[in-house]
Amino acid sequence: MSKLFSELTVGGVTFKNRAWVSPMCQYSAVNGLIQDWHAVHYGAFITGGAGLVMVEASAVHPDGRITPADSGIWTDQQAQVLAEIPRFAHRQGTKAGIQIAHAGRKASAKAPWEGGAQVSVGEGGWQSVAPSAVAFEGFTEPTALSLSDIALLRADFVAAAERAISADFDVVEIHSAHGYLLHEFLSPISNKRTDEYGGSFENRIRLLCQIASEVRMVVPATRALFVRISASDWIEGGWGIDDSVALSRELKARGVDLVDCSSGGTSLAQKIELGPGYQVQFARQIQQEAGILTNAVGLITTAEQAEAILEDGTVAAVMIGRSMLGNPRWPIQAAADLGDEIPWPNQYARGFTARS
Ligand SMILES: Cc1cc2nc3c(=O)[nH]c(=O)nc-3n(C[C@H](O)[C@H](O)[C@H](O)COP(=O)(O)O)c2cc1C
């Protein structure tokens, strides 16, 4: 049996394999409610053999949406509709996760296929918020969060996690990557605060650590808590891998089960060294030095590549994004490529079982 298709237990959750679907925004929700599109989209991955399907960034507050059409988890009704995904996943032996998110200073934008520019308040957008009144390139200046706003934000993340658990998600992932709100607090490029949430490393990681501890209290030991980070800003003087290792140790101490290692998103000045598996080094270093499980993500496209990443055990799992969009049954194909066999859904099995 390959490593890719061997079981993995993280926290209280055992995944049937380590080929996981990365969270991917669909910008197709209405008032934060997922639609038919999402049922088909996630259904395809669930019937495709993935061990974990991570639902896209879902906003903990309406102001935390990247676009007006983002998925949300700030109401109970949204959670009730989202519950269809774990219900369907569990029937296929797949685990379901959800990324809980706030877009910070990159909120109130148009969908990528509409150009991605910011939507003004007059056009139905909203005033964005951030650690400091420092704009992301091309976006308007956000309002700096006050201490009482931060207290409310912490409560929003906890309430979202509670809803995710009530919707029967196996995994809650806190989104602290890609230049969105929690990453904005981590990075000295976007965090210019002078209170206890800014300045020193300890102050910049304070909010994420508080949210991780508080969310852990509502995510039972039978589930798993992940945090997605940008392991590097890829900018001189920005957040870097050593910061990520130190942060990951703190997250582990607060009960986080796994760090999902992505990178970038703080500034257009980033100089990303793109190439196959370009973020794998971060996942390896964090798992080895911080002693917490990690997953790699980013330009992992083939079964052989995924297997090579997992082989020596220094990364626990891989998340795959665009290759899953291209072929939602990537895991079934990958298993065949590695000489393993994973079952087709019963409904399809007749088409793929040798008949005498
Ligand atoms: C359409 C699309 C939407 C995405 N939305 C999210 C998201 O909601 N949350 C997130 O953390 N990353 C998001 N990403 C990044 C992916 O999760 C993934 O990290 C990235 O695409 C790199 O992996 P890949 O090379 O396998 O695609 C998105 C990527 C794509 C292509």
From TrEMBL:
**Annotated Pfam families:** Oxidored_FMN
Q: Which cofactor does it need?
A: FMN
Name of the featured protein: Unannotated protein
Q: Does the keyword Flavoprotein apply?
A: yes
One GO MF term on file is: NADPH dehydrogenase activity
Q: Does the keyword NADP apply?
A: yes
Domain named NADH:flavin oxidoreductase/NADH oxidase N-terminal is located at 3-339
Q: Which Gene3D superfamilies match?
A: Aldolase class I (3.20.20.70)
Q: Which UniProt keywords apply?
A: Flavoprotein, FMN, NADP, Oxidoreductase
Q: What's the source species for this entry?
A: freshwater metagenome
